[in-house]
Specification:
By secondary structure, the protein is mainly alpha-helical. Helix content is 74%, strand content 0%. The protein is globular and about 40 Å long.
Length: 96
């Protein structure tokens, strides 16, 4: 699932000519995606203690990360004077 999300994210950024993909060294981008995948997996195992199955925790984490991406995208439209510092405490908000 992470591979599908990474490919989708990369293709979307290439399609809209985002500077994140076009101006960044591919090695750095791949390393960032790998680290991000490991963080999500670790977060899923941490959440597994609250759920009966790891699969449910993994799905909750992917939903949470997707929701975080949407919220980070919308943040630039919500906050006119810049995004507050507290917004960047959570790693997913900081990544986007």
């Amino acid at each position: 699932m992470q591979l599908i999300l990474t490919i989708f994210f990369s293709l979307t950024n290439v399609a809209i000519k985002s500077q994140f993909i076009t101006r960044t060294n591919p090695g750095v981008t791949i390393m960032l995606f790998l680290i991000w995948a490991h963080v999500q997996t670790t977060f899923a195992f941490a959440l597994a203690s609250f759920f009966s199955k790891t699969r449910k925790a993994t799905l909750v984490v992917y939903f949470f990360v997707s929701l975080s991406a949407i919220m980070a995208s919308v943040a630039s439209f919500i906050f006119n004077n810049g995004i507050p510092f507290a917004w960047f405490i959570h790693p997913s908000f900081n990544f986007f």
